[in-house]
Amino acid sequence: MVWFRAMAASAVARSALRRTLAQRPHRSTAVRPFHSTVLRRNAAPVPRPVPLSRLTDSFLDGTSSVYLEELQRAWEADPNSVDESWDNFFRNFVGQAATSPGISGQTIQESMRLLLLVRAYQVNGHMKAKLDPLGLEQREIPDDLDLASYGFTEADLDREFFLGVWRMSGFLSENRPVQTLREILTRLEQAYCGSIGYEYMHIPDRDKCNWLRDKIETVKPRSYSLDRREVILDRLIWSTQFENFLATKWTAAKRFGLEGAETLIPGMKEMFDRAADLGVETIVIGMSHRGRLNVLGNVVRKPLRQIFSEFSGGTKPVDEVGLYTGTGDVKYHLGTSYDRPTRGGNRIHLSLVANPSHLEAVDPVVVGKTRAKQFYSNDTERTRNVGVLIHGDGSFAGQGVVYETLHLSALPNYTTGGTIHMVVNNQVAFTTDPRAGRSSQYCTDVAKALNAPIFHVNGDDVEAVVHVCELAAEWRQTFHSDVVVDIVCYRRFGHNEIDEPSFTQPKMYQIIRNHPKALDIYQEKLLESGQISKEDIERINKKVDTILNEEFINSKDYVPRRRDWLSAYWAGFKSPEQISRIRNTGVKPEILKRVGQAITTIPENFKPHRAVKKIFEQRAQMIETGEGIDWAVGEALAFATLIVEGNHVRLSGQDVERGTFSHRHAVIHDQETGQQYCPLDHLIMNQDEELFTVSNSSLSEFGVLGFELGYSMENPNSLVLWEAQFGDFANGAQVIFDQFVSSGESKWLRQTGLVVLLPHGYDGQGPEHSSARLERFLQMSDDNPFVIPEMDPTLRKQIQECNWQVVNVTTPANYFHVLRRQIHREFRKPLIVMAPKNLLRHKDCKSNLSEFDDVVGHLGFDKQGTRFKRLIKDQNDHKDLEEGINRLILCSGKVYYELDEARKKTERKDVAICRVEQLCPFPYDLIQRELKRYPNSEIVWCQEEPMNMGGYTYISPRLCTAMKALGRGTMDDIKYVGRPPSAATATGFYSVHVQEQTELVQKALQREPIQF
Predict the structure, then answer these.
(1) Of 131, 484, 766, 989, which is least surrounded by CB within 10 A?
(2) Are 658 and 667 in contact (CB under 8 A)?
(3) Measuring CA to CA, how many Å separate 759 from each of 639, 659, 847?
(4) Residues in CB range of 7: below 8 A, 6 or more apart
C-alpha cells in the first residue's frame, strides 16, 4: 500500500483529482466498507465513483489513501466488484509491481500522474491548439497542461516512464508500456495542440470518446498522398480564383466573398466525397450568405454562367410557357441542386436551400427537408440522406433557433440521424468582437448541451480542415448524431466588399493586410516538400482561369430555367400563370363510412380513459347515423381519406396528439399499461405506420414550424400541418412566416402546401389566448384590393396568383374540404387556418356526413359538386333576390353563431348573415352574388377583434371594390361593428369581455344607424 500513501501525500497529486471525485459524498472519519457501498458492478452504486478513464484534471483529497486502499481491498477480494477500468489498472500496475522488482511504488505514482497528464490533454488540449491564423487570440493555457503541475521538470523529459499495458484507446493502446516523457508529450502536442483543437470529453458515452481518441491519437502527423494533395490544391485554387474573378469583373458588387476562409470549399468537397463513400446519397445544405456563391459554384455546381449572368443583372426566370413569375432575390440568397460525381467514383445529390438574411432561420428548414427525404426514400436507418448547415460564428452563438434546431436532433419524429454543422468563424460578427457577442469561450459551446463533438481548426491549414471535415462525416455515419466543425478564419474584406472593417477592428485588419492567403501558404508547403512543382501549380491556375473566362462569355447569352432546383416530385405542377382546374373534394359515401368506422374503433383489449372511451362511442354514433359530425371527426375524416388515397399526412406541434383543448385524441393511452394506439394507423390492411404521423413537438415554434416547412417542400403529395398551442404562439415563429411561408414562392419560385392551424376566438381568456393575429397574415397577402381578378371558374387563377390562403371556417365539413383541397389541385399554396376553440364542441357547429361525400346536388353546395365553400350564404332559405332584407352582416369565424343566436332570439327576419370562410384571396364573385341578392340592405362587417386587428382593414377596401363594381356605394357605406382600436388583443377581465361581446352582437343587429 506504500505507493497509495505516497501518491496521496504528494501536494500535486492531491490537487490533481479533486474535482473529478467531487461527486463522491463527503467522507467522515468513520469509513464504510467501500466495496459494499460504491463499487459493486452489478448493483446500483450510490454514488458510483468516476471510472479511471474519466479522470481529468483533478486528483485525491486528504483521505485518498483510505479511499484507494479500500478500492484495492475490494478488488483483491473480488475483481468484478470494481469498475472495469480500475480492474484493468490493478491488473497492470499492482500485479506487475508484485512480480517485477523494477516497478516500484514511486514508478507507479509517476505513472498515475502521467495518466492524469494524458487525460488533461484530452480534455483541455484544445486550449493550447494553434487555431487563430492571425495570432490575435489570447487564451489562458490551463494549469493542468503544465508539467510542473504533476511534479515533472525538464530533467524528466528523456526519462522512461511505465504506462502499463492498457485496454484503452489512443496511443496508450499501442502496447508500449515504457515511453519517455518527451515521446509522450510530443504525441500529445501533435494530437491535441496543433492546427486542430478537439472538444469531446464532455460526451458521456465512453464508446464515442474511445472512438474519437483512436482517430485523434493514433493518426501520426497527417500525411496525404501526392494524388490527394493535388486534388486538395486544385480545389483550393478553384475556391480562391473564383473570388478573385468576381472581384475583378464586378468591383463594386456585394458578394459576401469567402476571402480568408477559402479552405471551406476543399473541406466541404472532401467531406462530401467521404460521406458518399460511407453510403450517403443526398445532402441538403443550408447556409448564410458569406461564401454562398463560392459554394454554389464550386461545391453544388450551379452553372458559373448563371452566377455571372445574375451579377450582370441577367434575365428573369421564366416558366414553361415563357412567363416570368416572382420577385426574385439577391444572388447570395438563391439555391440550386445538382447530381455531383465524387472522388471515389460515386454520385451524390446536393441541394442548397434558398434562405433570407435571417442567418440561422434556414436551419430547421434544412433539417425538416432532410427528414422528408428520408421518409420518401425509405431511409429508415437515416444513413443515405444527410443535412449540412454552415453557420457564422456570431449567429451560431447568438440566435436561439440554433439551439431550437439542435434540440430536435434526437426527438423520434424529428431526428435525421445527425446534422453536420460547419462554422465559418470570422472571429468577428459584422463589427462586434466575440467578447461582446457571446458569454462563452467558443462560439460553438451551445452544441455541448447536445453532447456533440466539436472540432476547432485553423482555417489557414487546408489539410487540417480537410481532415476534420472527413472525420465529421465519419462520426455522423457511425454514431448518427450531430457534429460541429469550427473553421477559425477571418474576413479579408470586412462584412462585405464595400464595408470598411478598419473602422471597428483596426488591429485585426493591420494584420490581415499583410497576411498570406491560405492558397499561398499551401503552395509554399507543397513546393518545399518537392512533391509539386511551380509548373504544376501554374498549369492548374491556367486551367481554372480559362474555364472562368469561358463561362463569363457564355453568361451573356444565358437564359434561366424555371424551377431548375425543384425535386422530381414536383414535375407537372402548375405555376401561377397556368390555369389549374377546380377539383371536387368530396369522397364516396362508402369510403367515408369505412374510414369513419376505423377511426372510431378501439381494440377490445385496450383500456382507454373512461372519458376518452365515451368520446369514441359518441364518434362511432356520428358515423353510424351520419349526423352531428363535430370538428375533430371532420378533421380525422380528412386525414383518413387522404391516407387511403396514398398521401402522407403529418401533423406536429405542441400537444397535438391529444389536442390543446382535449378534442383530437389522435393518440390514446391504455390506462393500465400506458400503451399507445393511433386509429389513423389502422385504416387499411398492412398500412405503413409512417403514412400518418402525429407528434407532440418540443416547446418551440420557430424551430418546429421551420422543420415542417422544410418537410412540406420535399414532396407535394403530402399534407403537412403545424398547429400552434394557441394561435398567438405563432409570434415565436414570425421569421418563418415573414421570410419563408409568405414569400418563398415569390422570391425563390418554391411552392409549399404547408397548413398552419392557429386556434383563434374571443372566449374571455385574456390577451394571449384570444387572437391568432389574423391581421398580420392578411397584411402579408399580396392580392390587389382595388382590382377584381378573373372570377370565371374555368379561367380563374386567383388562388394561384396569391401568395397564400387565409381561412376562418365555421363548419366541420368546410374544414374537411379545405384540407383536402390542399392536395386535390395542380399547385400548392400555404394555408393559414384560424382554427376554432369553443366551436370544437359547440352545439350548432356540426355537419352531416352527406356534406362530406361526392354526391352532387346537396343543399348549399355548388352545382359542380362538393368542395370547399369560400362563402356560406345565409342559412335561411332566401331566394336569389330578397328585397325585404335591410341589413347584410358579413362576418368570419365563431362570431357567426353568436349573431345567429341573437337574431333568432330577437326574431329579426330582415337581417341576413353571411360567413366569409376564405378571407384571402377575397371571394369577389360570391360577395357580389350576396350583394345582388340583398339590393336594399345596409352592409355591415362584424368581427370580434379590435378595429386595428382582425379582418377589417383587409376586408373593407376589397368589399368596397366589389360594391363599387355593382354601384352599391363607397367605403362610407360599409359599417364596422367590433371592438374599438386597442394595443392589446383582448381584455383580461372576463366580465369586461362578456359586456364587449354582448354589445357588439347587439350593435350588429340593431335597427338604428351604427354609431362607433
Answers:
(1) 989
(2) yes
(3) 19, 11, 20
(4) 13, 60, 64, 65, 68, 108, 109, 112
Q: For Cα atoms 42, 44, 48, give the angle at the middle one, nearest 5 degrees.
A: 100
Cell of 777: 397574415
Entry field: residues in the chain: 1012
Which residues neighbour 136 within 8 Å (Cβ) at sequence distance 6 or greater?
427, 507, 508, 511
Q: What nine digits make up the cell of 962?
A: 366589389
For 106, phi and psi rounded to 5 degrees? -65, -40
Other C-beta atoms closer than 10 Å to the C-beta of 568 total 6
Question: Rounded to 5 degrees, what are φ and ψ at 912?
Answer: -110, 140
Q: What is the pLDDT of residues 75-128, one digit of tens each?
A: 778 888 877 766 766 666 555 555 554 455 556 678 778 888 989 999 999 999
Closest residue by Cα to residue 125 from 220, 59, 57: 57
Q: Is 983 exposed, middle or buried (0-12, 13-18, 19+ CB in 10 A)?
A: exposed
Specify the 3-state DSSP secondary structure of 833: strand
Residue 900 three-state SS: helix
What DSSP line would sit under 845-862, residue for residue? --B-GGGGB--TT-TTS-
Q: Which three cell numbers stand for residue 711?
A: 418537410
Closest residue by Cα to residue 837 from 933, 758, 745: 758
Q: Please calculate the CA angle 478-480-482 and round it to the nearest 5 degrees.
A: 115
- Residue 737 is given by DSSP the state I
Whole-angstrom distance, CA of residue 409 vs CA of residue 417: 7
Spatial CA neighbour of 417 closest among 427, 406, 409, 405: 409
Residue ranges in the chain whose pLDDT is less than 50 = 1-50, 53-66, 101-102, 165-167, 320-324, 331-333, 563-565, 858-864, 1012
Phi-psi region of 840 (alpha: psi -120 to 50; beta: other; left: phi over 0): alpha
3-class SS of residue 414: coil
CA 49 to chain centre: 38
pLDDT (tens digit per residue) in 594-613: 999 999 999 999 999 999 99
Residue 60 cell numbers, joined? 485525491
Q: Are 963 and 931 in contact (CB under 8 A)?
A: yes
The type of residue at 889 is I
Nearest to 487 by CA among 426, 432, 440, 429: 426
Grid cell 356540426 is found at 846
Q: Residue 678's closest CA among 690, 663, 686, 666?
A: 666
Q: Cell triple for residue 920?
A: 384571402
Instruction: Write the DSSP symbol of residue 429.
Output: B
3-state helix, strand, coil in the chain (%, to 5): 45, 15, 45
Q: Domains of the chain by range and CATH?
A: 2-193 (no CATH), 226-562 (3.40.50.970), 589-760+808-849 (3.40.50.12470), 878-912+922-1005 (3.40.50.11610)
- Give me the pLDDT at residue 960, please: 97
Apex 465 CA angle, 464 and 469, nearest 5: 115
Task: Give me the numbers of helices (H) and strands (E) for the chain, helices first please.
Answer: 34, 24
Closest CA to 268 of 131, 468, 428, 540: 468
Cell numbers representing residue 66 in the block: 483510505
For residues 1006 and 1012, what is the distance between their CA atoms, to the nearest angstrom? Answer: 13
Cα 972 to Cα 515, 964, 1010, distances in angstroms: 69, 12, 12
Per-residue model confidence (pLDDT) at position 356: 82
For residue 422, CA distances in Å to 285, 286, 440 come to 11, 10, 18
d(CA 567, CA 325): 19
Q: Burial, 873: exposed, middle or buried (Cβ in 10 Å; 0-12, 13-18, 19+)?
A: middle
d(CA 424, CA 459): 9
Q: How is the beta sheet containing 718-723 ordered, strand by strand?
A: 692-696, 648-653, 718-723, 755-759, 831-835, 805-807, 918-920
Q: Which residue has the cell 458518399?
A: 276
